[in-house]
Write a structure and sequence with these properties.
The structure is a single chain. By secondary structure, this protein is α/β, with parallel strands linked by helices. It folds into two domains: about 10-95, no CATH class; about 100-315, Rossmann fold (3-Layer(aba) Sandwich), CATH 3.40.50. It has ten helices and twelve strands. The longest helix is centred in the N-terminal third of the chain and has 23 residues, at about 15-40. About 40% of the residues are buried. The mean pLDDT is about 90. The structure holds S-adenosylmethionine.
Length: about 325
């Protein structure tokens, strides 16, 4: 079935039993991805369970599944496919348009090529990582300009199946591959953080994998809950969790429960962490020193991630 042949049937939500079947298939696959990324690092079983459930719940969200059905990626009759094939089709996507280099430059308020050109004056290759890379359009544009002079990495919970010359990984910003430490000269993350389960954890991970003198552009935002909460609540082990926003925050006095409660509490923890780092301006993390600045942008009509944090690595932390 192709997009042009889509019928009314293709717009009908998948029944819960089918969604649960897909979630059952995904669970061990996603958990394995996270465990491989962690490498020798250890996190609590509850935390691993939450991240796996969040990933599963975003992959099984109806909009996401229906998009795959309409493009013919996911057929109506799932029993025709092997478990492995279903996972592949849910996690990899046909190409589609996302923000390109020109739009990333607007978000960054600078020409990212100038930054890369400068790096290439003193070395043969520049390493770029786009987190929440979507279709990888930004990286594809860089590939056209730099060819083998740029190593181009992207990571997201579902990535483009067509990515010649790019290293696109399935994964979460919250747990980047262990062996990426200190690797990237330029990291971008635009219009993605509002989906993250834990922005504080993701931000700190980005500063682990950035080179000591690298640059990070990070669009930070609130929560855009593009997940199936039925799946998330059932599988995250957060039933009974309760969070009440503290005085002085935008959620002061409001109470949230279960997985949404944990998600909001993660966001509040990130707000406090970010405010603390901004107040310091210059801070040390992972043995490196960073300078942090923040800027508001009104480029998009959406207000999901319109505060751009820019982090400049100042080198090793000894100074
Ligand atoms: C709206 S798209 C933006 C894509 C691209 N950055 C752009 O600006 O056009 C959001 C992206 O965030 C990714 N994403 C969602 N949750 C994520 C997570 N926890 N870690 C990394 N990427 C995530 C999605 O898969 C998607 O690629």
């Amino acid at each position: 079935m192709t997009a042009s042949a889509s019928s009314e049937e293709d717009f009908k939500p998948l029944p819960e039993s089918e969604v649960d079947h897909i979630a059952d298939l995904l669970e061990p696959v996603l958990q394995r991805h996270l465990t491989e990324s962690l490498g020798s690092r250890r996190i609590a079983a509850q935390e691993l369970g939450e991240l796996t459930a969040y990933w599963m719940a975003s992959a099984t969200e109806q909009f996401h599944l229906l998009h795959r059905r309409r493009t013919g990626t996911l057929p109506r009759n799932l029993t025709l496919l092997s478990a492995e094939e279903i996972c592949r089709r849910v996690l990899y996507q046909p190409d589609y348009a996302e923000r390109n280099l020109a739009l990333y430059n607007k978000k960054a308020d600078t020409h990212l090529e100038v930054l890369i050109d400068k790096l290439l004056l003193t070395r043969s290759v520049a390493r770029v990582l786009d987190i929440g890379c979507g279709s990888g359009q930004f990286l594809k544009d860089l590939r056209e300009i730099y060819g083998s002079r740029a190593e181009l990495f992207g990571i997201a919970p579902h990535v483009s199946a067509e990515a010649d010359g790019l290293d696109l990984r399935l994964g979460l910003a919250e747990v980047l591959p262990e062996d990426w430490s200190n690797r990237f000269d330029l990291i971008t993350c635009f219009d993605a953080s509002m989906y993250f389960w834990n922005q504080g954890q993701a931000f700190d991970e980005m500063l682990r994998v950035i080179a000591p003198t690298g640059t990070l552009f990070y669009g930070t935002g609130g929560i855009k809950d593009s997940v199936d909460f039925r799946v998330l609540d059932a599988r995250s082990g957060l039933s009974g969790f309760k969070f009440t926003g503290s005085v002085g925050t935008s959620v002061a006095g409001k109470t949230y429960t279960d997985s949404l409660g944990k998600w909001v509490s993660n966001l509040c923890a990130w707000d406090a962490h970010r405010a603390g780092l901004l107040a310091q301006g210059r801070f040390k993390l992972h043995g490196k020193t960073f300078q942090l600045t923040s800027r508001e942008t009104t480029l998009d009509s959406s207000t999901w991630s319109n505060e751009i944090l820019q982090v400049a690595g100042l080198g090793d932390a000894q100074q």
